[in-house]
DNA sequence: CGGCGCGTTGAGGCTTCTCAATAGGTGTGG
DNA sequence: CCACACCTATTGAGAAGCCTCAACGCGCCG
């Protein structure tokens, strides 16, 4: 199931069939990681590039006092450490949040992929989007209310998961605990819980356990001041003249 | 004075003399921007790559309600939008904080530079560092106390400005108002002011207007939990076996 | 001299955090 | 099958801290 990878890259840049086949061949089946395992640990050096085929993970940093900050989500199709072999040690860790299928590509694989112009461009784009997401998260933490922060993350997940076929038009399964949401948006578990309650109270979301339904997507986006253009998906670009 | 550019890139990756000469020739003198002007505005498309030769700036995003979040500092040697011509619109703006000398490189210039392996690698590195800084800022906002946030920013500026010869071993000129510091770390002006007072009170910094002196750099770094490895400078790498 | 940007200070309100306890769900071992 | 440990979600109460509002001083500039 490397279709999510192709889907994700094609959301950024169109790919010839040949490139899709190459991608499919190179990625293969992948290795299975258990939930909670590190894909790459903080401070590790890695020669290989990890790609999420199936499952969810996150990037994180740990502080001396044990606090943790989540600095990115990994969803199917994400290249975790495209640049990893350039660095001698990773400045952050990556962990599997659910059971994951992970492809491990060598530098030769990457060179093979990046020798194709369309693929190289798509991968380059995906790195630009990663940086854009970091910038948007910074805005989220710095300048939005707790409820809006949580709402913004939910909006982003909705869109990102839709691209890889893991969300419907109005909902998805949230693969995160409230503690992990808090480590993402800079709040405590208690505050995240109350923020979610407020969102439920104002009917912006409906929750059944980890299943999130968004009755009025436009309303939630408005509340969160969510503007998907930072994700730089092609459809956003083509919507405009 | 494109020495800062060379200094900055060489801090990441060694460059042959030939490449330095090329860089020098391509960058030239640059255009002068007045303090407060936008280098590139939010939503703009730009075909050219802007490089800071002299002066200080920042990246920012503005929210609908007028709040602003600063999402990066631009110091001499920084390539503002290396990837800009790929995007059809910038997802954030860049502004000059002081009077600036800005070089404007065309796509041909960039292709000329990136055809040199060492230069290409250095530029690639600089983008990796930009992303690493964003991740560290996320940790800063999410999980550190107000004083530690401000202290961390000061530590980062000390190190980054040292690389381009704009800081001494224990101090530099802070080209930011307290309001701008607040827009960086997610605090109000009042809170930034009080955070700085606490830092002064505990003798971690000495201020004479915008001139910052750090009597005990190690102490400030300890207080801020500042680990410069995320900046990926060569000296850090070579310090270790 | 007046306006303006910036740093500083004070007081009060509000929100988040901390601490603590409870309940539901899951998985394990007896 | 039950007891138990553990994780997660939820709730309450109090303390602490940040934000809002407001005022003032200072230096700079026209």
From TrEMBL, chains A, B:
Pfam families: cNMP_binding, HTH_Crp_2. Residues 144-218 form the HTH crp-type domain. GO terms for molecular function: DNA binding; DNA-binding transcription factor activity. It comes from the Bacteria. Keywords: DNA-binding, Transcription, Transcription regulation. GO terms for cellular component: cytosol. The keyword Transcription regulation applies. SMART domains: HTH_CRP (SM00419). CDD domains: CAP_ED. Residues 31-89 form the Cyclic nucleotide-binding domain. This is Crp/Fnr family transcriptional regulator. It comes from Chenggangzhangella methanolivorans.
